[in-house]
């Protein structure tokens, strides 16, 4: 950089030569043409297909011109070079461009970002080669792209990475998160530098003195820029890691320490190997890293850290200048080489110097002085204007930075609001889908109930017809009886056959459907009447012993079939069902009371132990559970009162236990519903206890709430079957059932809200992950989503089958009739708000 400054100091002395040559008319245009021509000449001399190192003077000339004009002219010349067809040409371009990014004007980085896509494509193209310059070009281009992106993202860092400790602190803006992210970006930056370092060494035959050959020097020359970058990046990562360890737990920074250890070993080895090469000994003094890496767990170790310093001799010349002869056959050498560096760029000749008094063509000295004064004033005015522009641009930049900060804060707030809105939208969409499914299933159930009612009406009509037919049969039986008495007649052989036929048709009665049932009943009734007539006549005509001998097989079969027709409830003792109802209702009340007491105990423990969001979530969930227990209590009390009304209105002269025994199927359904309510309350409290302790799942608590709603619907349906529609206690029971439904909905809502709050505290940070790691986790997440969707579908099908079997057991096996069972299922579907209501069995 000192050479650049010294060269720039020589430029103002050469400006009058250009101006005098133009005669003052088109000086700026000619200066621009000479500048572009000098830039193109230097680029063509520095970047060519010869496998020799880039000469320092050509790179310095390109650098000097770019300091005042930026990188537009450089890229205009480079874009005409066939970089994609010659690997050596591309390699030397990377070397010159790297030097330009490090020591050129800050605008060089901004001007070059528009070519990032072309550089990326070129890196990908050269990456298909597995060896030679092609592979090295691919690695080098990736490094240059990473370097540009780093400096664009962190504009406080200059291209040569030279910063003081104060500037390094300002780069992080005193925010530990910024320092954490900055360290990760420096690790990535240094990783690209080390990859190029290793790539160059891997491509060289280290058993030979490659550093004194032209081909070896061509590959080693860019490593000077890499060594300069690596020394600063290593120094800054050490300082930032000590700063992070003073603010964050050591476990959090384990990944940073592991990555630093790996890069330290590589950099130490590469520095040592480079310092032994003859090529570097004459051009640069490479520092040596300490034997062991710093101990970041000990804060005092920072004072032991020594920043590595790379020393470049003031006037170093590359060894190839002594051994290699420059070949400029491929470039335009029209501009002569003169002693001054400005003459090297633009060219001049004393013979045509307009300030040469021997060839002034009659120009007076006064005219020359006035011209000089005029130019001096113009230069001073331009300087003032430039300074004013710089101040104004600085002020505008400051204003824009403030505006950018405000917009970023507003964007963050809008993003947060958007996420909240998305979450609410998803929740409402799920609720809407649930309601839509419940409505569709309710409509299906209503259609099923309509079909059931239609069948019931048809059965009632059939019953009326059967009753009429029975009356006709009784009348016919009387007529036949009178005829038999007149003419003579259950022989005993004939009567026995009649009894057997009756038993056969009675068996058909037990197993056939409705159409066959009508025919079987008709024929059975006819045979019963006929058998009675025949038996009556036979009993008067034959001895008793002979009659019994022929009738006993049929009578025995008749007895066994008639037992099957007896109601199941009659087999129980009258007091057993009544006592069981009272016991189950009492057990349900006790279970609810116990659950409420446990919730109060859990609430007290949570307030004593938990804090912050967790305490808020637990209190909200347990409060909703307490309200649900109160609603269930009211439901049980209302059910008891309604049962009393049902028993008192339906028992007549019978006792309460006789009423329960007489209506055994209904009683067993009532007992089952009561058990389900008590069991649901107990299970829900167990699930809430696990959730509060942090060991359970929020989904289990929501499922338990749905099950309680379904059990409540079952209890209401069981009680409603025998109740008077105008009963006040029935209205009270239905109101209590709605209260339970609302309370279960509140439990589900508080559980979902609590789950969302807990999950929001677990932020996902992917900042320290590489592209490969992120892609891998993305694939794993997609696989997990597919597995969970498949499992969810299977579990939904299983849940449907379980509910179907549940209602079969609760309805048929425990005493509901077909109409009662259908009504109970509709109630359960309407109140449970389940995504898949149980189908009709």
TrEMBL record:
SMART domains: ENTH (SM00273), ILWEQ (SM00307). GO terms for molecular function: actin filament binding; clathrin adaptor activity; clathrin light chain binding; phosphatidylinositol-3,4-bisphosphate binding; phosphatidylinositol-3,5-bisphosphate binding; protein homodimerization activity. It is found in: Cytoplasm, Perinuclear region; Cytoplasmic vesicle membrane. Residues 365-392, 425-469 form a coiled coil. One of its GO terms (cellular component) is perinuclear region of cytoplasm. GO terms for biological process: actin filament organization; clathrin coat assembly; membrane organization; negative regulation of actin filament polymerization; positive regulation of cellular component organization; positive regulation of transport; receptor-mediated endocytosis; regulation of endocytosis. Pfam families: ANTH (PF07651), I_LWEQ (PF01608). It comes from the Eukaryota. Residues 569-810 form the I/LWEQ domain. Residues 31-158 form the ENTH domain. Keywords: Acetylation, Actin-binding, Coiled coil, Cytoplasm, Cytoplasmic vesicle, Endocytosis, Membrane. The keyword Cytoplasm applies. Belongs to the SLA2 family. Component of clathrin-coated pits and vesicles, that may link the endocytic machinery to the actin cytoskeleton. Binds 3-phosphoinositides (via ENTH domain). May act through the ENTH domain to promote cell survival by stabilizing receptor tyrosine kinases following ligand-induced endocytosis. Homodimer. Interacts with actin; homodimerization promotes actin binding. Interacts with CLTB. Interacts with HIP1. Interacts (via ENTH and I/LWEQ domains) with BCL2L10. This is Huntingtin-interacting protein 1-related protein. The gene is hip1.
């Amino acid at each position: 950089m000192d050479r650049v400054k010294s060269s720039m100091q020589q430029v103002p002395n050469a400006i009058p030569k250009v101006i005098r040559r133009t005669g003052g008319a088109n000086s700026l245009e000619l200066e621009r043409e000479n500048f572009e021509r000098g830039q193109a000449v230097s680029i063509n001399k520095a970047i060519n297909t010869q496998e020799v190192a880039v000469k320092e003077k050509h790179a310095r000339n390109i650098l000097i011109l770019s300091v005042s004009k930026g990188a537009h002219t450089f890229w205009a010349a480079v874009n005409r070079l066939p970089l994609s067809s010659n690997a050596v040409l591309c390699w030397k371009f990377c070397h010159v461009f790297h030097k330009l990014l490090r020591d050129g004007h800050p605008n060089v980085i901004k001007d070059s970002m528009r070519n990032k896509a072309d550089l990326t494509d070129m890196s990908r193209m050269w990456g298909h080669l597995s060896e030679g310059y092609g592979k090295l070009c691919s690695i080098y281009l990736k490094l240059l792209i990473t370097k540009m992106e780093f400096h664009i993202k962190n504009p406080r860092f200059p291209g040569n990475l030279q910063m003081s400790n104060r500037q390094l602190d300002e780069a992080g803006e005193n925010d530990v998160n910024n320092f954490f992210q900055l360290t990760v970006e420096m690790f990535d930056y240094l990783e690209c530098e080390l990859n190029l370092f290793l790539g160059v060494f891997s491509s060289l035959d280290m058993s030979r003195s490659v550093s004194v050959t032209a081909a070896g020097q061509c590959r080693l020359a860019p490593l000077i820029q890499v060594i300069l970058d690596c020394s600063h990046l290593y120094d800054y990562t050490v300082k930032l890691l000590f700063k992070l360890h003073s603010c964050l737990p050591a476990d959090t920074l384990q990944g940073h320490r592991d990555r630093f250890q790996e890069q330290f070993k590589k950099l130490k080895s590469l520095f040592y190997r480079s310092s032994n090469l003859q090529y570097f000994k004459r051009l640069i003094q490479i520092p040596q890293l300490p034997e062991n890496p710093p101990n970041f767990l000990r804060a005092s170790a920072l004072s032991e850290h020594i920043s590595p310093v790379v020393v470049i001799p003031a006037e170093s010349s590359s060894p190839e200048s002594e051994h290699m002869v420059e070949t400029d056959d491929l470039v335009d050498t029209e501009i002569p080489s003169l002693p001054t560096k400005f003459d090297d760029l633009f060219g001049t000749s004393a013979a045509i110097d307009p300030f040469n008094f021997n060839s002034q063509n009659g120009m007076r000295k006064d005219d020359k002085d006035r011209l000089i004064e005029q130019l001096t004033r113009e230069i001073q005015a331009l300087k003032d204007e430039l300074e004013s522009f710089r101040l104004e641009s600085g002020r505008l930049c400051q204003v824009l930075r403030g505006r950018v900060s405000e917009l970023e804060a507003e964007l963050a707030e809008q993003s947060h609001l958007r996420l909240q809105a998305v979450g609410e939208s998803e929740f409402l969409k799920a609720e809407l889908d649930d309601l839509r499914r419940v409505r569709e299933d309710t409509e299906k159930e209503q259609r099923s109930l309509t079909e059931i009612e239609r069948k019931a009406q048809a059965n009632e009509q059939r019953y009326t017809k059967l009753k009429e037919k029975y009356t006709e049969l009784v009348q016919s039986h009387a007529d036949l009886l009178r005829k038999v008495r007149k003419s003579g007649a259950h022989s005993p052989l004939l009567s026995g056959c009649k009894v057997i036929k009756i038993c056969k048709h009675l068996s058909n009665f037990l197993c056939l459907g409705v159409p066959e049932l009508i025919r079987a009943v008709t024929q059975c009734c006819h045979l019963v009447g006929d058998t009675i007539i025949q038996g009556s006549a036979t009993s008067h005509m034959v001895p008793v012993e002979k009659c019994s001998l022929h009738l006993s097989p049929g009578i025995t079969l008749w007895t066994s079939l008639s037992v099957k027709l007896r109601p199941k409830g009659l087999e129980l003792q009258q007091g057993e069902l009544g006592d069981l109802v009272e016991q189950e209702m009492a057990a349900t009340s006790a279970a609810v009371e116990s659950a409420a007491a446990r919730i109060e105990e859990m609430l007290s423990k949570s307030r004593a132990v938990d804090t912050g969001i967790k305490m808020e979530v637990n209190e909200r969930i347990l409060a909703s559970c307490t309200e649900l227990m109160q609603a269930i209590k009211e439901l049980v009390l209302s059910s008891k009162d309604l049962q009393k009304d049902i028993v008192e209105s339906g028992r007549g002269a019978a006792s309460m236990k006789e009423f329960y025994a007489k209506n055994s199927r209904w009683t067993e359904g009532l007992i089952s519903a009561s058990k389900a309510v008590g069991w649901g309350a107990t299970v829900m409290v167990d699930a809430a206890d696990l959730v509060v302790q942090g060991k359970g799942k929020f989904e289990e608590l929501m499922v338990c709430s749905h099950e309680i709603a379904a059990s409540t619907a079952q209890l209401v349906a069981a009680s409603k079957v025998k109740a008077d529609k105008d009963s006040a206690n029935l209205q009270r029971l239905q109101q209590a059932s709605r209260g339970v439904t609302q309370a279960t909905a509140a439990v589900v809502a508080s559980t979902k809200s609590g789950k969302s709050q807990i999950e929001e505290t677990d932020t996902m940070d992917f900042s320290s992950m590489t592209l490969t790691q992120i892609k891998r986790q993305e694939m794993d997440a997609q696989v997990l989503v597919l597995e969970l969707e498949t499992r969810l579908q299977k579990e939904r099908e299983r849940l449907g089958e379980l509910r179907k079997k549940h209602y079969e057991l609760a309805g048929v096996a425990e005493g509901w009739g077909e109409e009662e069972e259908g009504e109970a299922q509709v109630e359960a579907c309407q109140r449970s708000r389940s995504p898949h209501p149980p189908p009709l069995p």
